[in-house]
Amino acid sequence: MTATEDFATMSARELRPVLEELYAEYVACLDEDRLEEWPEFFTDDAVYRIVPRENFERGLPIATLHCENKGYLHDRVVAIRQTAVYAPRYIRRLVSNIRVLGWAHGALAVRANYAAFETLHAELTRVFSVGRYHDTLVVTEGRLKFKEKLVIFDSELIPNSLIYPL
Amino acid sequence: MTATEDFATMSARELRPVLEELYAEYVACLDEDRLEEWPEFFTDDAVYRIVPRENFERGLPIATLHCENKGYLHDRVVAIRQTAVYAPRYIRRLVSNIRVLGWAHGALAVRANYAAFETLHAELTRVFSVGRYHDTLVVTEGRLKFKEKLVIFDSELIPNSLIYPL
Amino acid sequence: MTATEDFATMSARELRPVLEELYAEYVACLDEDRLEEWPEFFTDDAVYRIVPRENFERGLPIATLHCENKGYLHDRVVAIRQTAVYAPRYIRRLVSNIRVLGWAHGALAVRANYAAFETLHAELTRVFSVGRYHDTLVVTEGRLKFKEKLVIFDSELIPNSLIYPL
Predict the structure, then answer these.
(1) Measured between alpha carbons, how far is B113 from C27 in angstroms, rounded to an integer?
(2) C96 touches chain B (CB under 8 A)
(3) Is the minimum CB–CB distance between A53 and chain C shorter than 8 Å?
(4) Which of C157, C152, C151, C149 shows the shortest CA–CA distance to C47?
(5) What is the distance between the alpha carbons of residues B110 and B102, in angstroms, rounded to a whole number?
(6) Whole-number pLDDT of residue A68
(7) How far apart are alpha carbons C160 and C87 in whole angstroms?
(8) For A32-156, where are the alpha helices, taking DSSP H only?
């Protein structure tokens, strides 16, 4: 992505490869455990929430994780790094079925499905969480960044706790 | 997708983002349980079949589900809505590896892989079904619609019965 | 893909649909068990390696499978075909999150995530292996081919042995 692109004038069709790139970078950052870089995908005032599907569909406000700005995301990363009680594991994420809903009031609405797989040391890989993203992006310093990222996961029950971002 | 596009003159490369969009919409319709909208992805005379891979590869005609036109699809939705014996569950679908095989006699052949995950209430998410689509699309009223959708699933055995469309 | 395309002058954005096509063809070749065609995705001097993530990240050279040129890939296919001790099974692969890192010294660096699912006769489908590709492609006879394909899988433990290519 170059800073000279005018994302705001692009059609949904033209934005598709741009977003495929962005989500692939986002996933690689997390999968490769480069958590310190993760907040840079967000605007300073970004809201990041992880919500069970049932709560989301019933309009219940309770979130599993709620970060109100980029500072919270940094804090989250620090918390993960300082926590030693969890068994080491790999998470692998596949993002698919990206839908570009279009621009409204300077913000771009995007939807996507994800599947995340967890591998603990010397164990078989298993499904960790599946769900969807409800995202809002804006252009900041020539780049598309998440102003809001809502992760809606299908299962209330997930193996161990939800430590790593999705 | 706008009605003014001339899909029939597009190359496989040009059709790729169009089909990525279409399959993402198709999946979202099903994942979000908007089943009443599902038949609109099909032509009036569409054939929709779900077939075990072993039957498909042996040339056996037996299908797990066989719908001969759009009316059957509507009936299927009504049947699902009226059936209360199944435990509520979420299905999440990821469609990937879309292949645009090209136009022949006014019909576009497309292949894709899917993975579907099932989440029952208060249970872990598990793999529900994986397989591939063998699809034929035509242009109807300026839109690409499925004239034939063949869902070939890898496992004869699936958790519970195959209630929801793939 | 036509032989007249000049891949070397294309941007990462332009190469994305080309690579989506190529990986979809690669996966279909394997999923449909057309193993004899599989070596044709590689250059004559291609290196194909399957490596556990832990070894890769520690810089350990030990690979689960190491093929030093196309002849090794052909030998591998012959070995698979002649081996009858394995229970028949289907593998279904989803490749996602393709990242085009760009050209350097005539070679194109590409990354992608994969999830592979295994279905044994009369059994439920299960996660077989997830991981990522670290690939290097070059243009040979007008086509993009793998000069190096490194499959890095997350779990040391995989159901049964790693028989089929990824």
Answers:
(1) 9
(2) yes
(3) no
(4) C149
(5) 7
(6) 94
(7) 10
(8) 53-58, 70-82
3-state helix, strand, coil in chain A (%, to 5): 30, 40, 30
Cut 0.80: pTM above it? yes
Task: For residue B8, give both structure tokens.
Answer: 């029939």
* Average pLDDT over every residue of B88-101: 96
pLDDT value at position B15? 96
Q: Which residues pair with B101 in a beta bridge?
A: none
Cα–Cα distances in angstroms (integers) from residue A108 to residues A1, A19, A111, C129, in the given order: 17, 11, 10, 35
How far is residue C166 from each of residues B154, C16, C27, C30, measured CA to CA in Å? 17, 21, 8, 8
Closest CA to C152 of B59, A92, B67: A92
Q: Output the CA–CA distances (angstroms, integers) from residue C130 to A94, A116, A118, B113, B131, in the order listed.
A: 10, 10, 9, 16, 17
Sheet strands (E) in C11-164 = 42-52, 65-67, 89-104, 107-120, 126-140, 143-153
Using CA atoms, how far residue C127 sits from B79, B112, C56, in Å, is: 31, 19, 21
Instruction: Determine the average pLDDT of the residues in A30-50.
Output: 97
CA distance B55 to B159: 19
- Give residue B118's identity as a one-letter amino acid code: E
pLDDT in tens, A90-146: 999 999 999 999 999 999 999 999 999 999 988 899 999 999 999 999 999 999 999
Q: Classify the phi-psi angles of A69: left when phi > 0, otherwise alpha if psi is within -120 to 50, otherwise beta.
A: beta
What are C113's strand-pairing partners? C96, C132
Please give the Cα distance from B18 to B22 (Å, whole number): 6
Which of B19, B27, B92, B97 to mutate: most C Cβ within 10 Å?
Answer: B97
Joined together, the tokens standing for residue A87 give 């068994």
Residue C79, Cα to own-chain centre: how many angstroms?
Answer: 18
Instruction: Report the run of H or E that residue A13 belongs to, with start and end.
Output: helix A12-31
In the B/C pair of chains, how many CB contacts fall below 8 A? Answer: 70
Q: Identify the sign of the CA torsion C51, C53, C57, C62.
A: negative
Identify the pLDDT of residue B85: 67
Are the C-beta atoms of residues C99 and C82 closer than 8 Å to each other? no
Mean predicted confidence (pLDDT) in C75-95: 88
Q: Calculate what percentage of chain C has a pLDDT beyond 90.
A: 79
Q: Please name the residue of chain A whose CA is at the shortest distance from the CA of residue C17.
A: A17
Phi and psi of A153, rounded to 5°? Answer: -105, 145
> Would an 8 Å CB–CB cutoff place B12 in contact with chain C?
yes
